[in-house]
Every structure is written in structure tokens, then in C-alpha cells.
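Fig. S4 source data, part A: sequence.
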Amino acid sequence: MRYDLVIFDNDGVLVDSEPISNRLLAGYLTELGHPTSYEESLRDYMGAAMHRVHDLVEERTGQRLPDDFDDVLHARVFAAFERELKPVAGAVDVLERLVADGVPYCVASSGSHARIRTGHRATGLDEWFEEQWVFSSEDVGRGKPAPDLFLYAAEQMGVAPERCVVVEDSPLGVRAAVSAGMDVYGFTAMTPAERLSGASQLFGDMRELPDLLV
């Protein structure tokens, strides 16, 4: 393969969590008096760290979310993950191919370490990721669309940014990867292709990915 490291986003790329988490986020914001539809949640928050939710709500309404907002939302999301979460179709096939070809990979997610690990345990993907291959926006000062997380992951994995490719499904993630000087492949299963127009390559079925990386 032409890259020395494949960096995966997590939500929507490895685990099919975006429908679950955005349904619950929209519902909780609506409960708190900030009416939000599922579609609006996807548009505004998909691929973002939690601070973006707080920042946008305060910017739009002048009101701060409750201090326990993150804890309550995470508890709801984690419980739903245990009941409903599945790996993205074809994700395990991709990981098997990378292992067979000896290509290093890791995950770099806007989600917390607890969220990543909860999702991986629920789907069996924890077998594919050593602890040192998991990176979260918690590890850096700024989340996506800043490049910090992807640059940190590359540094920790010992690979130059220009030798990395990022697999992303959110506009914020694509922007972060481009800013990091990395190629980025946009996964369009849930995101309209035009919203990922900055990507080096677009694809809609995860099983297509290994052949695109050659």
C-alpha cells in the first residue's frame, strides 16, 4: 500500500454510532429547551468534540448547558451502545486486510477514550486495537477541525504526516486531515458526497477501501 499509516475516525467509520448518538443528542438538547432535530444534530455536531455542542448552544442562545450535560449524555449513549451498536459493515474486513498486508493503523476520534472503548467492546472491535493505537480529542488541546489530533496520532505512531491517510465521514474531520497535510478518504455512507468535497477520494462502501489504498 502507498501509505505507512491508516488513521481511522471512529464514529460512523468503524462503529455505526452516528444514528444512535445524534438521535440521543437531539433528544436531550430538545428536553433542555433547545429544539434540535436529528438532521440538525448530524449537520452541526457530527464528527465534533463535545465542546462544540456547548459552544454552539451558547453562541446561538446565550445560555450555557448544564454542568452535568456531558455525563448525562454519555450515560445515555453508552447504555444505547450496549443494546444497539454494531460495527460499520465491512470494517472488520478492512482491518483483516491491513493486518494481512502488515500496514499499521490506529483510530483518532473526537469522542472520549471511554466512548471509543465502550463502542469497541460492544462491537468486538476491541480485539483489533491495542491501547496505544487509540487516540482521542482528550489527548490534545483542540479537536477537529484543528489538525492537532491527527498530527498527534501520527507522531505517536512514528509516521510522517505525508505518509498517512485518514478515513473520515464528517466535514470537520476532512478539514482536520487536510490541515494536517494528510490525504483523506471520505466515507459517504451517511454524509452527502458534496459535504466531503475536500477529500482526496470518496467511497460509499467500506469494503472498497483496501483496494483504494493500493
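Fig. S4 source data, part B ends here. The beta strands are 5-8, 105-109, 134-136, 164-168, 183-187, 201-203.
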